[in-house]
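Notes from hallway chat w/ T.B., transcribed later so I don't forget. T.B. wanted the structure written out for a chain they're using in a teaching module, and asked if we could keep both sequence and structure tokens in one place. Agreed to drop them here.
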Amino acid sequence: MPDVSPGTILVSSDLSCPWARVAVHRLHEARKQLGLEDRVTLDHRAFPLETHDGRPTPKRLVDAEVAVLGAIEPGAGWQLWQSPDFTYPVSTLLALEAVQAAKEQSLKASERLDRALRSAFFEHSRCIALRQVVLEVAAECDGVDQEALQAALDEGTARRLIFEQYHAAITGDYAGSPHIFLPEGTHLFNPGIKAHWVGSRETGFPAVHADRPEIYTDLVRRAAAAAS
């Protein structure tokens, strides 16, 4: 299991994962409601599903998950893909790299870019596989230096981190995306949600049979307590 600094919540996920979209949104909202935005920081780590599965994540799979998860957490911001299908991102590796590269500025810069990239994909149907789009999203983020990020991407300073983090995940028995870790050792896969698939992964759809969003309040409180 990874070492997690006091006052930090480690989030291992993919940017195109709808379940992670819910988890990250709920962490941000719980932290805001508790007034702990200055005491708790999210440390995003890459779990690239395309590397894990050996293929781009199918659009039909994401669409099926969005239709279900958008109903249980509408505040996260969703829409089914509205741009032309040929612009649908087949990779999140560059966007994941950008989130890691932003850590050279600060963890806060990294978490802001992470959330903005998720919104760009799920809410605004933007192709976050493109360098130009990633940099445009960065320019729109308060606290993110777009020029410094561009230089980091051009130099590839964070590229190796994506695969180091993925290797750590698969050798550490992480369950997938999202997997969340706290400083005191607690870790949860897809916190608060229990779901199953109806039919096959290729043609079916998810069904959520339990959802406890209040668990995120507890997670944030425990991360803050570890920093006391």
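Follow-up for T.B.: The chain has a mean pLDDT of 95. Might be a good example for the class.
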